[in-house]
Amino acid sequence: MKKIHLVLQDGSFYEGFSFGYFGDITGEVVFNTSMTGYQEMLTDPSYRGQILIPTYPMIGNYGVSFTDVESNEIQVSGFAVRQYCETPSHNNSMMNIDEYLKKNKIPGIYNLDTRSIVKKIRNFGVMMGSITADENLDSVVEKLNSIGSYDEYNFVSEVSSNDIKIRKSDDRKYNVAVLDLGVKNNIIRLLESRECKVTVYPFDTKSDEIISSKPDGIVLSPGPGDPNNLLDILENVKKLISSNIPILGICLGHQLIAKSLGASTYKLPYGHRGGNQPVKDLKSNKVYVTAQNHGYAVSNEDMPNDLEITHINLNDNTISGLCHKNLPVFSIQYHSEASPGPKDSEYIFDEFIQKINLREESL
Q1: Residue in 5, 40, 251, 254 annotated catalytic
Q2: Mean pLDDT score of the chain
Q3: Which pLDDT belongs to residue 264?
Q4: Cβ neighbours of 349 (radius 10 Å)
Q5: How far is CA 81 from CA 21, 108, 215, in A?
Q6: Do the Cβ atoms of 41 and 50 come closer than 8 Å?
Q7: Residue 239: its pLDDT value, please?
Q8: CA nearest 253: which of 349, 163, 188, 321?
Q9: 251 noted as active-site residue
Q10: Which one of the listed residues 254, 272, 294, 335 is annotated catalytic?
Q11: Which of 28, 40, 70, 337 is catalytic?
Q12: CATH: 3.40.50.720, 3.40.50.880, 3.90.1860.10, 3.40.50.300. Which one for 156-362?
């Protein structure tokens, strides 16, 4: 067992043991409160550039499968846990979590007091950190304070598709374009289960190219990082909105819709990450338990006249949903596709299909 440390930007450090790939890594330290779904978390593109701490103490007990993945690689920079299971038990398991991290060259650290670390982040906010074998911890802290913050990096460019990808499918009723800001596999699965032929476009694709393909609907996907790093695509998003094509924005896509119409965003102290976030639908007065993974939110100050707030997070009253008052455009701050998390909000995709049908009936 090799002793290593998780070092935080504020100078605090936590001793543990290495598992997974042995190497130093830096990233923004965040936590997720879901009790299951560690493999989906690891492969969620929205975690790009972050060191992830699950609050659940035992990780890896049902192993790793080839199906519970949300992208083609592990996206987190590092993984910090209380305990991990070396001998998982599940009929679909192909390896344990240690082997999985090694295979993907992702450093991990275990035997940490994760409760203490999470309490610190809750009290003081997220901060940069490092999983390191360097025993000169003061120099590690100096490096952390010299590399710049997580907010400064455009991680979307790292996780988005490089080329246009047309998903192989039978003849389907709807053609849907997905602007890939860090799309999760389950978004595509749920669209395809609703008779959608899906075409995935790189994040910087010009709006004219998407509109000229005559999609029935457009999805702006979730993704990592600060929406302020994507200001150069806001004009494209605005043109997509004005095309009168039904649009669904999820998480980062929700933030970009709001920003393109004049709203502002801000960073949350420690984000919303977990499968237990209560969201109230203001129109139906129903409360849904949702899966969320984001560190930024849309401000309710100076809300553009074209937008209406449709959902709020009951934990802190942040905006969780918007709709355009005149166009078939709506967005949510949470993950309607779950993976991991409750499936209560899959109805959002049905509402998206309804908007497509209403537009076709009006043409």
Answers
A1: 251
A2: 96
A3: 97
A4: 20
A5: 14, 8, 43
A6: no
A7: 98
A8: 321
A9: yes
A10: 335
A11: 337
A12: 3.40.50.880
